[in-house]
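Run log, item B.
One chain of 234 residues. Sequence copied directly from the ordering sheet:
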Amino acid sequence: MFNDHFAALGNWFLGLAGLAHQPRPWATFITMQILVALLIVVVFALLRVRLSFDRPGKFQHVFELVYEFLHDQTHAQIGHEGQKYLHYFGTIFLFILLSNLVSLIPGLEAPTMYPGVTLGCAMATFLYYHMVGIRANGILKYLAHFAGPLWWLAWLMIPVEIVSHLARPLSLTIRLFGNMYAGEQVTTVFLKVTKFGVPAIFMGLHLFVAVVQAYIFMLLTMMYVGSAVAHEEH
């Protein structure tokens, strides 16, 4: 649909990136991300008009449970100051969760099956925790974290810390992409081999993996932010 009706818009974006125009410029993973983003906007628009202090409905109760879960996880990983970063944790969790689950709808694919999408999420987290770390500690104190607690070991700790931080987006990317791609391929194979019963088992397993991977990505993000904003006292 995007390629049939919005090809000119897609080629305009390609032009901004300095890429050649294509007859069908919209890739599946891009349109799936747009779909997920629009779904999130619609869901929260519907939620907002239904919010009630006196008579909360089931829709509100569901999201209150989600909020309490995210709030408790944030407090456990960061402490009472973690509330300031809850908006990012909730956003990345819901985006990845819905991106993982959208493939359960016939005809749609999970955008997290593509490494470029998971890399984008990983780089967003990478930049975010460095940004909030500098904001919380100041650039000099934040950079001092890389030197470790003992100044005479700084020559060893700085390279180790740099490699460790650079490995984080790679780890986030591969873990999410690998699990979602493998789960989708296994489900597809069994749908082709047998039509009843067995594929449902693997679809249920895929659902479980989708939720777990979104949670792990969010939890690691919380841990990275927590270590970045910590005020060390030596």
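Observations after the first pass:
- The two ends are 59 Å apart (CA to CA).
- The chain is about 75% helix and 0% strand.
Flagged for discussion on Thursday.
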